Amino acid sequence: MRPYPFPLALGLGVLLALAAYARALGFFPPGGVYLALLLYGLLALWGLRYGAVYGLLLLGLLAWVWPWAPVLAVLLLFLLEARRLPEKAQGAFYGWLFVWPFLALLLIWQVFPTLYAFYLSLFEKVNFLRRAEFAGLENYAILLRDPLFWRALGNTFWYVLFTVPTGLLLATGVAILLNLRLAFQGLYRTLFFLPYITALTAAAAVWRWMYHPEFGFLNWLLGTPGLDWLNTPKGVFALLLEPLGLKVQGFLAGPSLAFLAVMVMSVWHFLGYQVVILLAGLQSIPKEYYEAAELDGASFWQKQRYITWPLLSPTLFFLFTLGLIGAFQVFTQVYVLTPTGGVLQDTLTVAFYLYNKGFRDADFSYASAIATLTFLIILALTLLQRRVLERRVHYGA
Predict the structure, then answer these.
(1) Angle of helix 364-389 relative to helix 309-327, nearest 10 degrees?
(2) Other C-beta atoms lying within 10 Å of the C-beta of residue 256
(3) Partners of residue 123 on adjacent β-strands
(4) What pLDDT does residue 145 have?
(5) What's the pLDDT at 397?
(6) CB 327 within 8 A of CB 160
(7) What is the C-alpha to C-alpha distance for residues 176 and 275, in angstroms, rounded to an integer?
(8) Domain ABC transmembrane type-1 spans what residues (predicted)?
């Protein structure tokens, strides 16, 4: 007879304990706890085939009163039966015993909140002050007809299109230069990394002063006194084409000047992180390749094109994926630089709109619907990006 699946029992015990805690705090439906109790109870009853001592597992059904009962019941039974178990089964249990604390944290802070957000999105105007009525997919139907959501989504797409490629191109160029033998190389690397370790809120506050129409450093530097960077809702493409007599409106007018100012600040802030990652990727490329290329008479640009770029592609793909996900979650710098979302909601992003619905309007069900739909959009774009770009990634030298 195969040994009893203690790792499975431990996992179900932890899940049951977490579900019981979440239910006690009001963040988990009773049906989820009942399902966990049923699965754990079936596994406990199946254990009676191995001996009467396995009846200790039934103590875990007290999780409704004491959430940690199933975990302690499994641990107690394992200590009693450990000597009779094969060495492989003991090793598997101890391995899962060390893994579950960290896996439980991942469930608590990532998986459960995601599932709970979807659960909230199925109700009508949840504000935790009154009983909410089940609404099904009504919030999603309203969301797809919400012009403000589409405005926020369009702004977010502009943010992604500008910050992700621009940031990677700048970071790659800086990383290549910093990888050369330069005087004060360590100082340059420190200077580029300092913005990233600066608190984003503090950095955005400084940039808000720099953008000030009367006392800002940027207007003084460019000689454009009075230009209100953060309160100009006109699209940058419309501004550039206006002297030529061409007029564009709507999405084709491009991001507003205010939103462009937010994007520039974001690229500056995250440049240091990307440079450090790219430097690590550059230093992993064997120098012999460059030496061989020099012997063949390759120029600097040819070495970058045929050696650096292909061998740096895994690092670029990694940063592109993280940049795409992070760009869809942009909030802090938008909130600090333009607290109202711009003059005509021209700097409103999806994350900012979610915040307004949840914490300003106290409509957590609608905010949860926004979060769920945003998650699906990010997932779809990430899978599409992986399918299109990963084939061009060279993982081997």
Answers:
(1) 170
(2) 28
(3) 134
(4) 93
(5) 54
(6) yes
(7) 9
(8) 153-385
Cα–Cα distance, 379 to 373 (Å, whole number):
10
Q: Where in the chain is the domain with CATH 1.10.3720.10?
A: 144-392
Q: Rounded to the nearest 5 degrees, what angle is found at the Cα of 290, between the Cα atoms of 289 and 296? A: 95
Q: Collect the ranges in the chain with pLDDT lower than 70.
A: 1, 395-397
Q: Which residue is associated with the tokens 């120029």?
A: 299
* Cβ neighbours around 279 below 10 Å, total: 20
For the chain, how many residues are written?
397
Helix/strand/coil (H/E/C) assignment for every residue in the chain = CCCCCHHHHHHHHHHHHHHHHHHHCCCCCHHHHHHHHHHHHHHHHHHHHHCHHHHHHHHHHHHHCCCCHHHHHHHHHHHHHHHHCCHHHHHHHHHHHHHHHHHHHHHHHHHHHHHHHHHHCCECCCCCCCCCCECCCHHHHHHHCCHHHHHHHHHHHHHHHHHHHHHHHHHHHHHHHHCCCCCCHHHHHHHHHHHHHCCHHHHHHHHHHHCCCCCCHHHHHHCCCCCCHHHCCCEHHHHHHHHHCCCCCHHHHCCEHHHHHHHHHHHHHHHHHHHHHHHHHHHCCCHHHHHHHHHCCCCHHHHHHHHHHHHHHHHHHHHHHHHHHHHCCCCHHHHHHCCCCCCCCCCCCHHHHHHHHHHHCCCHHHHHHHHHHHHHHHHHHHHHHHHHHHHHCCCCC
**Torsion angle of C-alpha atoms 18, 106, 39, 43, degrees rounded to 10:** -100
Angle at 22 between CA 16 and CA 24, to 5 degrees: 100
Q: Name residues whose C-beta falls within 8 Å of residue 359's C-beta, 6 or more positions apart in sequence.
A: none
CA 239 from centre of chain: 33
What CATH homologous superfamily does 144-392 map to? MetI-like (1.10.3720.10)
CA 311-317-318 angle, 5° bins? 110
Q: What is the pLDDT of residue 240?
A: 83
